[in-house]
Specification:
The chain contains eleven helices and no strands. By secondary structure, the chain is an all-alpha fold.
Length: 192
């Protein structure tokens, strides 16, 4: 593993797990290596075996994303509800739940969930971005653009995802000139 050979590390961890099949930590390490190696089928199989582990947040995330990918938003919502408040999964859980609700067709609940995050954990900008994207998707681009306008200043370059989403929402709201202007101003800040 120190040499960056993840595939070989996966093989060795799998062999070690055969010798100690009840070793949850070894199984968790194998799962992480399988994800790193891009072997998602094997990682999902490992995740299912680790699924009962209350400390395996990364496992819960992969299983929830599998449900989203399969269009099973009800299961995804339930899995996202299981996230604790630790690490990335806990911080991002409100957004995950919001998008699962959105995918299930409950746009009002999705917007309520994303708004409930407030400015907690310093993620206000991320919350506003997701709210704006949802508003655009439900045919309310002017409201979505309003969420992002305050994120764009003439003092510093804006994150590209926010800038491009704002421009797209402005165009969808019939404000093409405003979209062009904000892009022009930001281009001047970006330099070469």
């Amino acid at each position: 593993l120190d040499e960056g050979d993840i595939a070989t590390a996966v093989k060795h961890f799998a062999l070690a797990l055969e010798a100690a099949p009840d070793n949850a930590e070894l199984r968790r390490q194998l799962f992480i290596l399988q994800v790193a190696a891009g072997d998602f089928d094997a990682a999902l199989a490992s995740a299912r075996r680790l699924g009962a582990d209350p400390d395996a947040e990364e496992v819960k995330l992969l299983l929830a994303l599998e449900a989203v990918h399969g269009g099973d938003y009800a299961t995804a919502r339930g899995r996202f509800e299981q996230f604790g408040s630790r690490a990335v999964t806990g911080i991002a859980a409100p957004l995950f739940r919001a998008w699962a609700a959105f995918g299930a067709g409950d746009q009002d609940a999705a917007l309520d969930l994303v708004r409930a995050g407030g400015e907690a954990e310093g993620l206000g900008q991320l919350r506003r971005y997701h709210e704006a994207a949802m508003l655009g998707l439900v045919g309310r681009p002017a409201e979505g653009a309003a969420q992002l306008r305050a994120e764009v200043t003439d003092d510093a370059p804006t994150a590209p995802r926010i800038l491009l989403t704002l421009a797209a929402l402005e165009v969808d709201a019939g404000r093409r000139a405003e979209a062009v202007e904000v892009l022009r101003r930001q281009a001047g800040l970006a330099g070469d």
